[in-house]
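To whoever is on call:

I kicked off a structure prediction for a single chain this morning and the downstream step that reads the tokens threw a length-mismatch warning. I double-checked the sequence; it's 64 residues and nothing unusual in it as far as I can see. Pasting both halves so you can look.
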Amino acid sequence: MAFVPENGLYPLVTPDDRNVVFLSTRSGQQAPWIVSIEGGEPVPIIDAFAGVVGLDISADGQLL
């Protein structure tokens, strides 16, 4: 995936089509990160383990 470099896993586009949430181990543990769909530097959402089964975005985009 071009806009999620390195070890981005399980990408999800936010309901507003502006960002991509993905899992990455770049912080040392598998955690959720976010990046603009137009590119840029990914930012961690929280420094806590998140599994693939636990990663989803609510329909209104307010909850992860």
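Update from on-call: the warning came from a stale cache, not from the record. Cleared it. Sanity check on the structure: The chain has a mean pLDDT of 83.
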